[in-house]
Write a structure and sequence with these properties.
- Helices cover about 35% and strands about 20% of the residues.
- By secondary structure, it is of the alpha/beta class.
- The protein has two domains: about 45-140 and about 245-295, D-Maltodextrin-Binding Protein, domain 2 (3-Layer(aba) Sandwich); about 140-240, Periplasmic binding protein-like II (D-Maltodextrin-Binding Protein, domain 2), CATH 3.40.190.
- The strands form four sheets. Strands 1, 4, 5, 6, 7 and 15 form a six-stranded mixed beta sheet that branches.
- Strand 13 and strand 14 form a beta hairpin.
Length: about 300
């Protein structure tokens, strides 16, 4: 994941947090934890979701991946895609369960929701804890910096060389990328999300905030103090690295994951996937044929 969407002006920070709080309460009151698995090989969650008519989605309030808009409605690339795929699987509706990004995998494991629909990056560490759909998008990184980029920060190597004060989000892949380039993990300022990252740059607490190209571009739109750098591929083990994001499922629910993948690949082949994601800023460049197996490390 990191980090995380029709494209209209995004919600204010206040309305976003209010929406998350309200819908978090709704999720808690409307239904308690998901029932434990039945022991059926591959899991029977899909059958149970069909019977109850609703799938609970773990989201992290991150534009453009999954968030509550200014009207209190669930949207974002992952929830909108989930609505289409679950409908095709015979599940009529989805319900958001907002949480912090760093709590998505623990929340899934403790059955607070059925699937993580937050545009989560697929990487080997996470693949030890959950199973992923194939990615529905690929993504580069970008930095939020002060207007004019006074330190000339273009990539992680620049951050280390110029001893910039560096921040990124809770649980973001960008933590590992900075460390890979020699930045001390203890020196990284970890903030909840890209809004907090923008605030940290604008206030001078840090020189740079790292996130996905889409989230950073979106959050600086109304800022007169900060800008976003050109997107770039982090260098990992000497090679440019492209991330891919997808949906996370509990390890025993392979039947649901596999059925989800079947519908996802149909949408890719027909071109409907791009149509669903395009309103949130995704382009043909973000479409991918990468697989979860590749991103998990084979």
């Amino acid at each position: 994941m990191s980090d995380q969407r029709t494209r209209t002006a995004g919600p204010t920070r206040r309305s976003l947090l209010a929406g998350v709080a309200a819908l978090g309460a709704l999720g808690a009151a409307g239904c308690s934890r998901v029932a434990a698995g039945s022991g059926v090989e591959g899991g029977d969650l899909l059958d149970r979701l069909k019977a109850q008519g609703v799938a609970r989605l773990g989201i992290a309030g991150e534009i453009p991946f999954g968030y509550i808009d200014k009207n209190g409605e669930l949207t974002g690339e992952a929830p909108e895609l989930a609505k289409v795929i679950f409908k095709r699987l015979g599940v009529d509706r989805v319900q958001p369960v907002p949480t912090e990004f760093g709590s998505l995998i623990p929340g899934l494991a403790s059955q607070q929701f059925d699937v993580v629909a937050a545009g989560m990056y697929i990487n080997p560490d996470r693949c030890q804890q959950v199973i992923f759909s194939d990615p529905d998008y690929q993504m580069l990184d970008a930095f939020i910096v002060r207007k004019g980029n006074p330190m000339g920060l273009r990539d992680y190597e620049d951050v280390v060389k110029k001893k910039a004060k560096f921040a990124t989000g809770t649980g973001y892949a960008e933590i590992a990328y900075a460390v890979e380039h020699g930045y001390k993990e203890d020196d990284i300022l970890i903030v909840p999300d890209q809004v907090a990252g923008l605030n940290a740059v604008e206030s001078g607490r840090v020189d740079v905030f790292a996130g996905t190209a889409l989230t950073t571009r979106e959050v600086v739109k109304k800022s007169d103090k900060a800008e976003v750098t050109e997107a770039f591929a982090p260098i990992i083990d000497g090679e440019p690295h492209v991330d891919g994001g997808g949906f996370a499922f509990r390890p025993n629910e392979t039947n649901l994951r596999d059925a989800f993948n079947v519908e996802l690949h149909k949408l890719k082949k027909s071109g409907e996937l791009l149509r669903i994601l395009k309103p949130f800023g995704f382009t043909e460049n973000e479409m991918t044929d990468l697989t979860a197996k590749e991103l998990c490390g084979g």
